[in-house]
Every structure is written in structure tokens, then in C-alpha cells.
Amino acid sequence: MKATGLLRQGARIAGRLLKARATGGRIPIQAWLFVTNRCNGSCFYCFTRPYAKEFKDQSTQCMEEIIDELAGMGTVHFIVIGGEPMLRQDIGELIRFIRRRGGIVELRTNGFLIPEKIDEIRDVDSVCVSLDGDEAANDASRGKGSYAKAMRGITAAIEGGLNVHLHGVVTRYNVRNLEYLPRLARDLGVHMTYNNTVIQGGERDWYMSDEEIRRFYRDYRALKEKGYPILTNLSAIDYVIRWPYPYRRIFYRNEMEEVRRSGLHLCNIPRYTINVSADGYVYPCGPMFGKFGRNLREGGLRRAWEYIGECPCITCSDIGCVYNSMAFSFNPRRLLEAFGVALKNYVGGRCPAQSASPDSSRSDAPR
Length: 367
Ligand code: SF4
Ligand code: SF4
Hints:
CATH class: Alpha Beta
Radius of gyration: 19 Å
Structural class: alpha/beta
Helix content: 40-55%
Shape: globular
Largest sheet: 9 strands, mixed
Strand order of the largest sheet: 6-5-4-3-2-1-8-9-10
Strand content: 5-15%
Bound molecules: iron/sulfur cluster
CATH architecture: Alpha-Beta Barrel
Number of domains: 1
């Protein structure tokens, strides 16, 4: 995407935010489309692949109807995810359909199929490839041989001229070598992000303790301060570093007073974000998967969207959601930050603010 295209899309998003604020309404500006549960990977922390056998993928026509309806409801930003979305034979068709409906498309993939199918994904605005660290760390989390396959994909995507972004999931097992991925991103001339998934729920031996999570966020911040090409903005990182409760805690409406007293950000994800799972369930966000949603087969997409507007939670510490929620808060500073991130992610350039920042010329900038 060219910078002018991004400006145009930014204006569309701002217009929808303004309209929603003026009318007190909700608009699903950002849609996460889980186009399949199937996957050719084997990450031990996966929460979608275990359902691959239970549900068949929706047909191309059905997916296009969903995309069409979302675009009609105001969606501008489509994140195509799975499972492994590139396993779908029609992935190129779906991407092109979103583009024809005027959407920005971000593809989230493990990268294994990029070399073979790069022509199918040329129309994406950004491709996010999962990689959890160096070969040993990545293969321990994502399966033997996955590092080599992901790197082939990343190389093909970069050589193919796509905007690439690396994304790592941090667990107790790979948190020690946090610098590897930002350094690799810098060496490849791309950007990166990290997250952890403790809010997904359940008990897992790979979850980090609160102390480990806070240390991880502090280290993440330090890496960003050193000038590595990290997309997550400092406001979101600082917010989760200061989060004063257990990281797995989600607050609900009956706790509003405590949330206000603690000065926590009120989540507006259910006002502007929709997740459509491969089996047709509609949720407000990742942490609410399996907890608060409705299937679009029970009365259609719009009805499911209305339903998730009643989501009873009001704030949590999921860094991806915090970042998005802050961007949607219509605070001029936050909007500018979000635009800077989008510029790096979708246009591939450095945002003007970053070019002017002392980071890029610091003598301790990583080499
Ligand atoms: S690549 Fe994604 S969908 Fe596939 S196993 Fe890993 S986490 Fe699950
Ligand atoms: S507070 Fe917001 S991001 Fe967190 S679980 Fe609830 S809806 Fe999702």
C-alpha cells in the first residue's frame, strides 16, 4: 500500500470512529477472520488446531458473504488468520475479494507455504509470520523443522516485495532469548511484535508467572528503547508494565468502581472489533474465545455482532487488545501512534516521528 492509500484508509477509520462516537453506536472497524482451523504446524500452545477435525471450513461463497456483510457494516481492516490460512485453496480469491470491497488485508501465517503460494497473496497489505525465536526455541514451541520452513517463507515474502512483520509468542520456555527476534527483524529490514497468551484461560505449564510477565514487558520495552524495529507502541507496553493486578485477571461490569479508582483503561474492543471463528462463532476478542460469543448461524452476523456488544468484561491486560483499544479511543496522540505503526506495517516505511527520534541515531542503537 502507498502512503496516500494508508492516509485514505486512516481517514475512513477516523470517520467511522467519529460516527460511532457521535451516535453512541458500534462499528466493527477491525475484523479477525479465522478462515480455517486446519494447520500444517504443531505449536504446543495452539488453541484453534485442536478443533480442525470437528469443523469443516466454510465454503468460498460463505466466506465472501461474511466479508461482504462485514464491509457493509463498516469493517475496514481485515486480519485473515487460522489455523493456517494459506492451506485454503481459495486464499488468493478471498484476499482479492476483501481488496475489492475496499479493505486493508493483513495475513497471519506460519509462513510454510509462502514460497509455493506467493502469487496468491501478492494483494495483501501486510503478512505477519509467526516465529518464536532462534531455531532451538522456535522448534521447541512450534515443532521440529518449523524454523527452517518459516525462514524460507519469510525470505520468499521479503524477496517478493511484501510488507513483512514477525510475531513471536512468548512463553516460559522461550523468554530467555528475547533479543533474537528483534535483531533478526532489524537485520531483515522488517518489523516485529511479541505477545503472551496467559489470558486465553486454563492452566498450562508454559504460562509465565506475573513476575516473569512483568520482567518480559520491561525487557521488551528496553529492546524498543534500544531502537529495534518493534511495532508495539510504548503507551501499550508501559500500561501493561504498570498493570497493578494479576495478569490473568479480567474485570467485569460489577467491578467498574474499582477499575475507575485504579485508573485503568476501559476496553472498547467490543465496540470496534469482531472475531469470526472458523466454525462461525462471533467473539469480541481472542481472550473471549469460547467464553462469550454467538454463532452467526443463530440469526446471522449482525445479530451475533449485537450480542457481543453485551460482553460483560470491561478491561484486561492483553497487550494486543490494549494497543487496539487505545488506538480506538480517539485520543489524537494515540491515533497518531497507531498511524505510525500502520505506516511501518502496511507501507513498509519508517514513520516520520520515528525517523526524527533520537533512537535511530543513538550510539547504543543495536548493530
Ligand atoms: S501455526 Fe498457528 S494454527 Fe498452526 S499450530 Fe501453530 S498456533 Fe496453531
Ligand atoms: S476486556 Fe476487552 S480485550 Fe479484554 S477480554 Fe474483555 S473484551 Fe476482550
